[in-house]
Give the backbone structure.
Amino acid sequence: MKVILLGAPGSGKGTQAAYITDKYDLPHISTGDLFRDNIKNQTPLGQKVKAIMDTGNLCPDDLTVAMVKERLKEKDCENGYLLDGFPRNLFQAGELDKIDAPDVVINIEVDLEKIEHRITGRRSCANCKNSFHVDFIGDREACPDCGGKLVIRKDDNAETVRERLAVYQAQTLPLEEYYSKQGKLVSVDGDKSIEEVFAQIVKVLG
Ligand code: AMP
């Protein structure tokens, strides 16, 4: 099964991805995580994208598509994938259709006015990469899942969030129509609890 998770930054794609990979045994491929790993490991790719990511803009399409292409060649993608954060624009969607088109696209819909609160309160685990909101975990510093260190992502600040939202609206929203025309788009209500959102996704994936 080849699945794409679509949704605004902070809509809960990463959180739902962790639940989905658990139940359906699909490799979770988050382009944001792949870029952050490259930055952490100071690779040439990481050095190229670091400044761009800090502003909330999209990394260049050629680098992004090449990175995903390589990742999809790995053995764990033989039976499908769960893409989170890719594609982010129509060009990337077209390229993915040429490489390995998705079966279903789950669109997590949230109230965009709540995004800033969702993102500025987000704490991400440096180890397992799961994220949590301070509304639920308070000021704890260790990941509730694996005990790793909880950090605030460099681009999870109010100013960058506004830029990321603008980029989402201009470049990523058109993907809804793109996949809807292909008959692959299914929208779920992301303004519910984590469990309720996941239940809607399970209904889609079966
Ligand atoms: P995310 O973790 O998905 O919120 O992504 C964080 C940042 O990584 C984005 O703001 C972009 O700078 C970069 N990024 C992630 N995925 C993509 C993509 N598919 N295309 C271009 N840039 C991306």
User: Anything to note?
Assistant: The radius of gyration is 16 Å.
